[in-house]
Design brief:
heterodimer, A: alpha/beta, Hypothetical Protein Ychn, Chain: A, globular, B: alpha+beta, Translation Initiation Factor IF3, 2 helices, 4 strands
Chain lengths: 159, 76
Amino acid sequence: MSEKKLAIIATKGTLDWAYPPFILASTAAALGYETQIFFTFYGLQLLKKNPKLQVSPLGNPGMPMPMAMDKWFPVIGTAIPGMQSIMSSMMKAKMKKKGVASVEELRDLCVEAEVKLIACQMTVDLFDMNSSDFIDGIDYAGAATFFEFAGESDINLFV
Amino acid sequence: MTEFNSKLDASGLNCPLPILKAKKQLNGLGSGEVLYIVATDSGSVKDFDAFCKQTGNSLLDTSEADGKYHFYIKKS
């Protein structure tokens, strides 16, 4: 039986957007897919050894806020200094309470399931990042490498 | 009561953890052996069905009681 393949491009570096690539990749691997994630631009944050990911309520009208703050103080309430940290802590606490895996846990499960993680070499250089910032076992490559796998994948996702 | 070789308590865990942990535990079982899973995530009912359809393992039995979902999966 030939294995199905899933290719994902991860471009976002926030707590909420860290979930889709890792959830889909780990689940696909459990279903028997050969899976690869290509991390570029802010998505590189997801490969950091200690990712300090946050979720921003600013410019995010879909985000539920405590005490209907977004309703009483639209936009400005979400822009208050410190609000992003507070909301991120609340989100992480809520996830833990509801049995949602942490980003690090899902990432570990991806690594364990042999999901191939590739950092975009161009953006690593652009942001003056170093391979010592990232977890071990990842590859560094460019767009042509992505297409080598994506071109023969059954599913391609851009997150 | 269906007999089983191994048990996984996935109570309190949310998507996709029950599936991922079940897959991991199935890896340690032999062909024909049965994994019994308890979960509280209501989404896991459809997910375990989809998991088994795609992986070729058979879902022998599912049931729900007191907010807990019970699955018996036989490894292919």
